[in-house]
Amino acid sequence: xxxxxxxxxxxxxxxxxxxxxxxxxxxxxxxxxxxxxxxxxxxxxxxxxxxxxxxxxxxxxxxxxxxxxxxxxxxxxxxxxxxxxxxxxxxxxxxxxxxxxxxxxxxxxxxxxxxxxxxxxxxxxxxxxxxxxxxxxxxxxxxxxxxxxxxxxxxxxxxxxxxxxxxxxxxxxxxxxxxxxxxxxxxxxxxxxxxxxxxxxxxxxxxxxxxxxxxxxxxxxxxxxxxxxxxxxxxxxxxxxxxxxxxxxxxxxxxxxxxxxxxxxxxxxxxxxxxxxxxxxxxxxxxxxxxxxxxxxxxxxxxxxxxxxxxxxxxxxxxxxxxxxxxxxxxxxxxxxxxxxxxxxxxxxxxxxxxxxxxxxxxxxxxxxxxxxxxxxxxxxxxxxxxxxxxxxxxxxxxxxxxxxxxxxxxxxxxxxxxxxxxxxxxxxxxxxxxxxxxxxxxxxxxxxxxxxxxxxxxxx
Length: 461
Known about the structure:
Layout: H1 14-21, H2 25-36, H3 42-61, E1 62-65, H4 66-76, H5 84-93, E2 99-102, E3 105-109, H6 112-119, H7 121-124, H8 135-153, E4 155-168, E5 179-184, E6 192-201, E7 206-207, E8 216-221, E9 229-240, H9 269-279, H10 285-299, E10 301-302, H11 314-321, E11 323-324, H12 326-339, E12 344-352, E13 357-367, E14 371-375, H13 377-385, H14 389-394, E15 396-397, E16 403-407, E17 432-435, E18 438-439, E19 445-456
Parallel strand pairs: 10-11
Antiparallel strand pairs: 1-3, 2-3, 4-9, 4-19, 5-8, 5-17, 6-9, 7-8, 12-13, 12-16, 13-14, 14-15, 17-18
Helix pairs in contact: 1-2, 2-3, 4-5, 9-12, 10-12, 10-13, 11-12
C-alpha cells in the first residue's frame, strides 16, 4: 500500500510514541500491528502504516553504539587534550552528533563521524584520513571570483553539460519483471531558459514537459539483465545580480505561495512565535525575510541528516534543534517566510561546479518589485562561519550560475506519477525506481552525477 505522507502531520498514539522514542523498534511495530487490527479512523490508520515504513528506515540510520563511536574518535583523530569520550559527549550535547536510543542504548547516526570532520574545523585538522588536495580551496577561489564578476557585470552565465545515471543494485534486481524508472531531468525556470537533452539510454517511454515542477524521464521495461539508465544534457544558466534596497519595496505584495503544505510547511505555535520574535515590529517584507535568513545562517548548524521522511516536521526540527543540512535549512526559511505572508518556495537540483558536482537545495522568496529572489542558507551559513560577510550577503537575494535545476516545487508528483512509495517523497535528485508492489529504497539502487563540461557564455539578453 502506498503511504499517505500528509498523515505524517497526525499524532502517534502515546504507547507507540514511547516505544519509538526509546528505540524499542520491534515492540513499536508489534503495537502498531495490534492497533491496525482494530477499527480505527482512516487518518490514524494511515499514520500508523506510514510509521512502519519510518521505523524500518530509522533503525537502519542509527547504528553506531557509544563504544564504537568512541573508538572511531580514538582511531581516526590525532590526540587532543580531551579524552575521546569527553569530546564525543560535547558534540552530542551541542547537536553536532545525531543520536537515538536503540533498545534503550545510545546509538549515533551512521554518518555522525563524517558530519563532525566535515563541519568542525578543529576536527578537520586532526582527521588522519583527510585528503591532501586543493580541490576545496580551488572551488572557493573560483566561486568568489565568479561572485565578484557577477556583481560587476550584473549577471553571470554558464553552459553546463552533465550526465545523470541510475542503476538498480544487483541484489534488488528482478530479471524479467517490469521496472519503472523516474530519472531527474533539467527543467526550464527563471534562470534557465535553454535545456538540451543530448542522449538518453535506453529509449524512454516519456519525457515530462521542460517546465514541469519536478521534471523526470520515464522508463518502463522488463529487462533480463541489469543495466544503467542515463541522461546527458546541456543547459545555459543565466543568473542576474540584484542589488536589494528596502526603500524600493512595493507597498502592495502578492499572497501566492504563502499557504501551509502538510506535513512539513506548517505554521505551528512555535513557528508563529519564532516569526514574531525575529520580525519584531518590522513591516518591510524584505527586511523580515533578511531577519529569517540571518537566523538560519547564524544559528542553525550544518549537519548531515537521516532520510527526510523519518522527520515528522522538518522546519520545526531545524528551529528547535538548531541543526540541519541544506534542505532542512531551506525548508525552515520557506516556512518562516510563508508564516509571515512572504511568498516562498523550493528549488533544488545539483550544484555543478566550478569543479565538482553534488546535490543541493535552496529557497526562493518573492518581493515586489524585484520578483523571485534566492536564499541559499547553506552557502550563506558557511560563508558566515568563515567570516566572509560579502558572500554571506550575496546569498540573500542572489545565487551563482553553477546550478542545475530539477525541482521548483516541494513534494510534487511526477509526470507520470510513481505508483509505489518514493525513496524521497519530497524531492528528486538521484531518481526513483519501482517494481509492481514495491518502490525501491535507498540501498536498493544507486544514482550518481557526472560534470562533463562547464564554460562561460556571453550575455545574450
